[in-house]
Design goal:
3-stranded antiparallel beta sheet
Length: about 190
């Protein structure tokens, strides 16, 4: 069973790993201090990936995810208020766009967890689009098809972003550079 050891900086500027026993030559290890970028990434979890270290794939998947989410928000509002509302003058179905506004800030702040749960949330809107594409009249069928397309783009962009981000973190780890938070871990096991 691995033992999680507390970390502390000693007076020489190195990180000291100790167990609950008094430190001796066999129970303490000195490690060089981590780079300043790794410390700032661990201190601020919103800096999940820095733009300077992002690959073109990560930037593309992020742009697709944010663009399709904004498109889905605009479509939900326009569809229920002007394009093909259930009742003339709009309906309260426009409130379905509110849950889509919540993850927008997380996507813009590069939060990996947000990309993960948006890829699950989007299936509710996909289901609505499929049902309305088969059950509604013509103008609404068109917008349902657009909703399905935007949902598929959003899901693919989120799934690819998570996959590429883990691949990018693994490449940084093998190159000796610590990955940015949240992939970085703060506990050390022997």
């Amino acid at each position: 069973m691995p033992l999680i050891m507390p970390l502390s900086w000693n007076s020489t500027g190195t990180l000291s790993l100790t167990t609950s026993q008094p430190p001796s030559s066999s129970t303490a290890a000195n490690i060089a201090p981590p780079p300043a970028a790794a410390i700032s990434a661990l201190a601020d979890p919103t800096l999940a990936t820095a733009e300077s270290t992002a690959t073109p794939e990560l930037a593309l998947s992020r742009q697709l995810a944010v663009g399709s989410l904004v498109g889905l928000i605009v479509l939900c509002l326009a569809w229920e208020l002007w394009l093909a509302p259930l009742r003339p003058g709009g309906s309260l179905m426009a409130l379905k766009a509110l849950p889509l506004c919540l993850p927008l800030a997380g996507l813009l702040k590069h939060r990996l967890y947000t990309y993960r749960w948006v890829s699950l949330l989007v299936w509710l809107y996909f289901t609505e689009g499929v049902v309305r594409a088969y059950s509604d009249a013509w103008p609404s069928q068109l917008w349902a098809g657009v909703e399905v397309l935007l949902c598929l783009i959003l899901f693919a962009a989120c799934a690819l972003h998570v996959r590429w981000r883990f691949r990018h973190a693994a490449a940084l780890a093998t190159a000796g550079t610590p990955p940015a938070a949240p992939e970085a871990t703060s506990s050390v096991t022997p």
